Amino acid sequence: MLNSIIILLSLIMLTKVFSAPPAQAPPPAPAKAYIMALQWPVTVCLVEQCKEKKTPPPESFKLHGLWPCNTYWNSSVEKCPGSDFSGPALDDMRGDLLTYWPSLLQPENQFWKHEWLVHGTCSGLPLEHYFADGVRLTRLNAPQILSALSKSGIKPGDVKETPIAIRDAIANNFGVRPKLACVFDNPIYLLKEIHLCLDQNYKFKDCPKENWLKNCGPYQSKEQAIIKLPSN
C-alpha cells in the first residue's frame, strides 16, 4: 500500500514538472549606449524607390533608428527577447512618428515593427517609451544638425564637400564628433546618414575616430573624397 502511494505521488510530481510552462527569458537590461541614426530622405529616395511619389521627400533629417550598442559604439545589440510589436500601442503618437520617424520605403507599421524587434527589444524599455524617446531626441536634435551644417556653408543643393568638412561642421557647431554614411549615385557620393553616439542617459558623446566613414568614397583617404547633400 505504501509503495503504491509513493508511486502515485511520484507520477503526480512528474506530471507537474512536464506540464509546467517553459521558463521565459528575463527581459534585457537597459541599453548601455545607443547610435542615433538620422537619414537624409532626399538621398534615400534618389537611390531607392520611396513609397511616396506624389510629393518630394522632406529636406530635413529624419530618424532611421535608435540602436542599442556597446559602449564603444562599434557593435550593435540586436534581437533581444522581449514583447512583440503592437501597432495600436503607438496610435497616440502616430502623428509624431510620421513627422520624425517616418518610413520612406515600406508601410509604416512594417518599418516600426522591424525597428522594434531588431533594436527596440534590446533597449530595456517598454515599446511606447522606446518610440517616444526616439521622437523626442529627433525633434530636439535633427534641426540642430542641419543648422550646424548651414553655419559652415554646407546646405542642400549642388555644394560638394569632403566628409571631414561635414564631420568638423557638426563637431564645431553641435559639440560632438559623428559618423557618416554615404551612397554612390554615379558619378558622385551622396550623404545618406549621420550617426550620433549617445550614452545610456541619451547624452551625446564623441563617436570613435576609427571607422567613422561608411561608403563615402573609393579613395584610400576617404576623408578627402567629395560628397554632396542633395536637394529636390
Automatic annotation (TrEMBL):
Keywords assigned: Signal
Name by which UniProt lists this protein: Uncharacterized protein
Top-level lineage group: Eukaryota
GO biological process, one term: RNA catabolic process
InterPro entries assigned to the protein according to its UniProt record, in alphabetical order: RNase_T2-like, RNase_T2-like_sf, RNase_T2_His_AS_1
Organism: Saponaria officinalis
PANTHER family reported for this sequence: RIBONUCLEASE T2
Family in the record: Belongs to the RNase T2 family.
GO molecular function, one term: ribonuclease T2 activity
Cleaved signal peptide residues: 1-19
